[in-house]
Description:
It is a single chain. This protein has one domain (2-77). It has helices at 2-39, 45-78. By secondary structure, the protein is an all-alpha fold.
Amino acid sequence: MKETAKQAQKLEKTLNWLMGVSIALMGISSTIMSIAGLAGFALPPVLLRVLGIVNLLSLPVLVYSTVKKLLASREAAKQPVKTAATNGVKKPKKKKKKK
């Protein structure tokens, strides 16, 4: 049980990192291209292609990590919640009625 919790935490940390990096890369490349377009600068075609490829490669990573996080949160919602009242406390036995 503890091993799966550690694995789940490691997976969540990795997914958070992947999402952050992909969002940052997409934001940086999109900002560079949009500022250059608004300012009227002509970026070299090689730079435009590199920035476009960065956007195209980071988009599937973002989609993958988002879907994995969504599925993990749905699985976590299905599991029963342990509270102090139910965690390790045995239910009292019912007494048999005498006739």
